[in-house]
């Protein structure tokens, strides 16, 4: 259960994501979160912001996605925590990074993560983030190789 990629210090492959306004509107529709802060450029600029703000829960979902893409369907997130440091705005790109900090005898893996905004206004968007996870055994193959 603790293969070589799950050793303390192992680097989680980065996950990159762009946030065009169209993606943000699609997310608002999928979650029924129609606060104008997340899609209305006039509304946010009148309040001194440079562009609509990416919904913070998207960043948490990216942290979970990063781990699940890395470890596959056997990855079971047990806990996820994150703290916002700076907002992410429409038109920006982020990269999620992480590393394994501990692997317990019980198979519990602890990962430390971050979300960084890349580009001209590079900054940390989410710090003090991470997860604990376990891996479930892969399903057994059918005897005889499957249906005939």
Automatic annotation (TrEMBL):
Recorded hits in InterPro entries, A to Z, give: HotDog_dom_sf, MaoC-like_dom
Pfam assignment, any one: MaoC_dehydratas
Q: Specify the MaoC-like domain's residue ranges.
A: 23-105
- Name the family: Belongs to the enoyl-CoA hydratase/isomerase family.
Name it.
MaoC/PaaZ C-terminal domain-containing protein
Question: Organism source for this protein?
Answer: Streptomyces poriferorum
